[in-house]
């Protein structure tokens, strides 16, 4: 089986995979890490209440919600939702309930510094 194959992701197969640190209360399972100009593909697991600060997409990002609900400023995305974030778009992401998403980034995102008033 190729190293990039993961089985039964939409039916809970992700529960059998190992996740490592990514951000506070968000863990990652790399399916294919960034390499040169190749996109990164991973699973992200958000604990309830976890968030990722406002960031800009330097390339195309696509997300499939496998479990739970992921949210951003434009809405809440339930299991089965497919989200496309265009290059140059900005948002923050959170999950009140916790969630698992399959994500592909063409390029790493840029975390934006919050302005201090």
TrEMBL record:
Alphabetized Gene3D superfamilies for the sequence: Jelly Rolls
Pfam families assigned to the protein according to its UniProt record, in alphabetical order: Cupin_7
Record domain ChrR-like cupin: where: 16-103
GO molecular function, a single term: hydrolase activity
Keywords: Hydrolase
InterPro entries: ChrR-like_cupin_dom, RmlC-like_jellyroll, RmlC_Cupin_sf
Protein name in the entry: Allophanate hydrolase
Organism ancestry: Bacteria, Pseudomonadati, Pseudomonadota, Alphaproteobacteria, Hyphomicrobiales
């Amino acid at each position: 089986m190729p190293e990039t194959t993961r089985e039964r992701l939409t039916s809970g197969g992700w529960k059998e995979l190992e996740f490592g640190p990514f951000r506070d209360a968000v863990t990652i399972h790399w399916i294919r890490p960034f390499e040169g100009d190749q996109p990164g593909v991973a699973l992200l697991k958000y604990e309830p209440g976890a968030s990722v600060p406002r960031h800009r997409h330097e390339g195309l990002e696509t997300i499939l919600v496998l479990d739970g609900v992921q949210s951003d400023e434009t809405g809440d995305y339930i299991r089965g939702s497919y989200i496309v974030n265009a290059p140059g778009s900005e948002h923050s992401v959170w999950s009140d309930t916790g969630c698992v998403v399959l994500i592909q980034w063409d390029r790493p995102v840029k975390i934006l510094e919050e302005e201090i008033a």
